[in-house]
Amino acid sequence: MAKNGNGVTAEQMISAIKEARGFVTKASDILGISRNTFYVYLKRYATAQQALEDTREKRHEWVENKLMQAIDEGNLTAIIFYLKTQGKHLGYVERQEVEQSGKLEIEYVNDWRHAQD
C-alpha cells in the first residue's frame, strides 16, 4: 500500500485491520510495515486502536456463532468443548484428584533460600 510522506494514516490502518480481520501480522503485511512499526502507529491513532478491538470482538462473536451452530447440529466435539470451557460451574471440568496417605517429604533442589554468596 502506498504511504504518504508522513507514513501510514489512521484510515490506512483501519482499512488494513478490517481486511486482516484483526490479525496484526496480516495487517502489517498489507501495509508493508513491520509488526513493531504497526504497534507504533497503533499507539498514535486511537481510532485504529478502537478498530482493532472492534474487529477482534466481531471475529470472536463469529467464532462463537459457528461453535453454537456446530452444537445445534449435534457435533459432540463442540458440545464437549463448550461444556469444558463454559460449564465449569456445573462440574464439567477435567481434573485429576490425587490422594496422599502417609508422610509427604519435599526435597529442595537448588534451593535459593540456602544459597551462599
Give an overview in words.
With 117 residues, the chain is mainly α. It has a domain of 81 residues. The protein is 56% helix and 0% strand. It contains five helices and no strands.
Unreliable residue stretches: 1-5
Taken in chain order, the helices and strands follow as: HHHHH
Oligomeric form:
single chain
Query: Can you tell me the overall shape?
Result: flat
Helix content: 55-70%
Estimate the strand proportion. under 5%
Task: Compute the separation of the termini in Å.
Answer: 58 Å
State mean pLDDT (0 to 100 scale). Answer: 88
Report the structural category. mainly alpha
Number of strands: 0
Rg: 24 Å
Largest sheet: none
Number of helices: 5
What's a quick, concise take on this entry?
This protein has 117 residues and is mainly α. It contains five helices and no strands.
Question: What key phrases describe this protein's structure?
Answer:
mainly alpha; 5 helices; 117 residues; single chain
Helices and strands, with pairings:
Elements: H1 10-19, H2 24-31, H3 35-44, H4 46-72, H5 76-86
